């Protein structure tokens, strides 16, 4: 019976990449010293970009509001350092293009302390006021997608949340930032969880952690205060265990139907980093101005888990970690499975940047592509039960419209299919190309 | 014996019945199609490219016969073919001005600054979704030949500089390349419009020129040198407005420091090729 229950703690399909976490998992989080220049892009979350609230040349304090949300699906920005706004304009963005951003020069003589903002007592806030406070604190999903957290809190009529699910799976190889956060700040995590649980009206908090982090599971279990309905669930080590729909399947055995959200099955999913950010704001008055970033990979001289002020250029982070090793070829922002390569070292660390991984020649060398042998491994890997090989072939043939019939829009680009493919077919890139074409389709006459 | 006769008798009966129904239908439900539609369709090129704005050649032929469109709106047919259609239908040919596809970028691999190396599979749209390709300029040609593959008429070929060279003879101004380009760089321009801006960068000054040697730095000299009103600066780029001023003259491009605005005689990027030959 026990082994049967164990088996249940997983989802179907998925892959087992080597986890490479030993490089940084035992390194305590370090605080990165302040640099000179910071760049805060106005659109570092999914949704509407922010509107700047400061002028060029204006002095700013660390933690001061510098940009207001541009709409409901948008989160505020705060200055990561005390200094002066140098320029508001086009800066190099993570997607390789240029993006509107606020450039800030740090004041070298400042002590860089955050004046704790007068934060209203969270218990006395109404739900609407709480949602607005989360938005103005700039809190977004810290797992990588950077979806504004307050949007998940505002529920339509008739939808009730029963479970708050906290995502500590960290299924991406190399990344250890959530792991360290759970080990070093379990109290803050549990405080934030209680705030969220009470505001959502959920009956229970469930923290899902992959079984390869037994120390994190123990630490959190030891810190659970008496009377808090918190349950820590060890999950099978499998990728993408941290995808929210997969995690709901693993923990509750419920499938979230295609096109629906976790709230439709009564669950609210948040990353551990997001929950700690909630606690930092409501209990310590610190808005989202820094985050934990794992710097790892074969090309880094001194791998580390760092608390990095947002807006720090990747160049500064790499210099702090002892620079790049000779032969480094590629820097990936995020995890190796879903992260994106950065095209320039001037790109800043954003709210959704969980890791900076430097790869040397070997793992990124262009591998020769072979024809599809119809082995079906991608079908067995796809956690969303799509047909990746067919989608890839259709994308090659530019049959983008027909791909909609094969549910291309349900693909979350987790990368399992490409990982499993023995012929090295870049399936995810082909699917991403098709989705990009569908998103930017020019209607005739436009 | 009896069985042997029944089956053919039933079959014959059914055949006669349906034959009668068909004969009646032919008599009363008959639709007369204008034979000229079929004949006109024969004269059209049959590429179904959509450049005329119709879904294909047969719908275009129907509209031609109905007199709703002019033969000249087909940009693919040769002049003789247009003439013969006009003669056949006894209408005015109304030959439209010849359009060709022009690329709003001249930043090939020799001009544009490269900041990273793209190593995914070949294709502009694929590169555009991975950190925007490797070029420093985020608005320019990626040079991975999506347009070359999309062209129905084999009019686009990538040149040694990594830019698509449009053969103005073969180009039929169908919108294939316009739709294929993920950076929206192709536009259909009259062949005899000589003045053309070959840049799409919305930055000004050094911010633009450090990304690409042939970027428009928004100095505004072309606007000052052209006939009043012809060129105006909009979003750090010159916009040529033939309706607002004119006539265009080659003087407008003489003082351009980066060759972002050019006076085209026929095809684009000819000067880049000749300059290369001179250097070699």
Brief account:
The complex is a heterodimer of chains A (446) and B (280). With 446 residues, chain A is of the alpha/beta class.
Structural commentary:
The complex is a heterodimer of chains A (446) and B (280). Chain A is an alpha/beta fold. Among the domains of chain A are: 2-26 and 139-284, NADH-ubiquinone oxidoreductase 51kDa subunit (Rossmann fold, 3-Layer(aba) Sandwich); 377-439, no CATH class. Helix content of chain A is 28%, strand content 20%. The model of chain A has no long low-confidence stretch (mean pLDDT 89). By secondary structure, chain B is of the alpha+beta class. Chain B has helices at 2-28, 35-43, 57-66, 79-89, 124-129, 146-150, 176-180, 206-209, 221-225, 251-254, 270-279, and strands spanning 99-103, 156-158, 164-166, 186-190, 195-197, 231-234, 237-240, 261-263. In chain B, strand 6 (231-234) and strand 7 form a beta hairpin. Residues 274-280 of chain B have low confidence and may be disordered. Chain B folds into two domains: 38-89, Electron transport complex subunit B, putative Fe-S cluster (3-methyladenine DNA Glycosylase II, Chain A, domain 3), CATH 1.10.15.40; 99-279, Alpha-Beta Plaits (2-Layer Sandwich), CATH 3.30.70. In chain B, 34% of the residues lie in helices and 11% in strands.
Structural class of chain B: alpha+beta
Distance between the termini of chain B: 97 Å
CATH architecture of the largest domain in chain B: 2-Layer Sandwich
Shape of chain A: globular
Tell me the name of the CATH class of the largest domain in chain B.
Answer: Alpha Beta
Per the CATH scheme, the topology name of the largest domain in chain B is: Alpha-Beta Plaits
Mean model confidence by pLDDT of chain B: 85
User: Quick one: how many beta strands of chain B?
Assistant: 8
Structural class of the secondary elements of chain A?
alpha/beta
Listing every helix as H and every strand as E from the N terminus to the C terminus, the arrangement of chain B reads HHHHEHHEEHEEHHEEHEH
Identify low-pLDDT runs of chain B.
274-280
Roughly what percent helix of chain A? 25-40%
The tally of domains of chain B stands at: 2
Number of helices of chain B: 11
CATH architecture of the domain at 2-26 and 139-284 in chain A: 3-Layer(aba) Sandwich
Instruction: Name the assembly state.
Output: heterodimer
In what range is the share of β-strand residues of chain A? 15-25%
Number of helices of chain A: 15
